[in-house]
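#onboarding

Welcome to the new folks! Below is a worked example of what a typical request in this channel looks like: someone posts a single protein sequence, and someone else replies with the predicted structure as tokens. Don't worry about understanding the tokens yet, we'll cover that in week two.

Example request:
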Amino acid sequence: MDAIKPYMRPGLNGSHGISSETEFVVCFLGTGGGAPTRHRLGSCTALRLGGQTFLFDITEGTLRQMEYSAILPSSVTKIFISHLHGDHLFGLVPVILGIMVSHKLRMSGPPSKKQRKHLLEHGEKPTLEIFGPPGLYNYINMVLTLSMAKVNYLNIDVIELVGGRMERGPMSSRPTNRGARNIFLSHYPETETPCIKRNYLEPNKDGVWVIDAPEPITKEVIETSNVGMGHVQDGFKRLPNDVNLGLGRRLHIRSAELDHLAGVQTFGYTVEEQKPPSTIDVNKAKAMGVQPGKKYGLLKCGLTVPNDDETGEVLPEQVCIKSFAPRKIAILSDHRMVPKPMAQLCKNADLLVHEATLSKADGVAVSENKHISFD
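Example response:
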């Protein structure tokens, strides 16, 4: 479904005019939560953004569900896991393997044994990033090891969000487990896979984990940037915040904790574009003494420039005729309350995906309801 209107550029991708580079489309692969039915899979939301796909939570059957959509597994570049409950996690390893197979099949022709060995040792493998609570890395490796599945055509970076209120997981709070090995944070060398790396990300003082933060668009960035050279087919030098930059785009991606169940660390996520360049009126710019050149890039990004003879300044609002607002989505999974840091992240979102599979109308008391949001 087109949850957020894409930028429309006639002539790019058929009659509807939606460019694959500028799309911002949300697809609900599953909305059944912990109680899936024949017609509703468990939790999984996909965000199609500029030629790539982000998945949020992956329940059982997600890989098959993707076959009913237009989403190619090889287009998935990032996966975000909210918490380690099975209805949000048990489909993760099959999707990882599906992504790997999809990349393998996209290779031009079946590689020979010698070519395959060279690729595994020296080739440029695609990378999949997976974000979530501590324990995610151990879960992935344990399932792969015990099922004797190999990951060799894909590099996986597992980034665990550490430093939260529930960081150690539910087992550590039980008196009988004090002093025992922490299964969420410990290392198990016998299950580790060379292609899967473990990294940690700590929160800021405001309780927000910054997953990606593009550098501000400044004069220096614009004048020295070579972003997009060789990536875009027309060879045009793109600005770092250009919506047509495709996989090279940087986004504002942040996370904060949700209050779900005691001892179960749960995260919500927001994804926001950089403010894209405005459209410049060339005739107006020329009339004000600025000929086509690097200064146009500055004006498009909201920066004031001197005119060519340096007798005055030209303001962006004097020559820019159209400006697109950056689009933002917030995705909140199971929770009973939204803490302040997460609530702040959700401000000004164009779309809020709020999972609430139970309500007061279902006859569940608020004190017992673990899937309802209240302030």
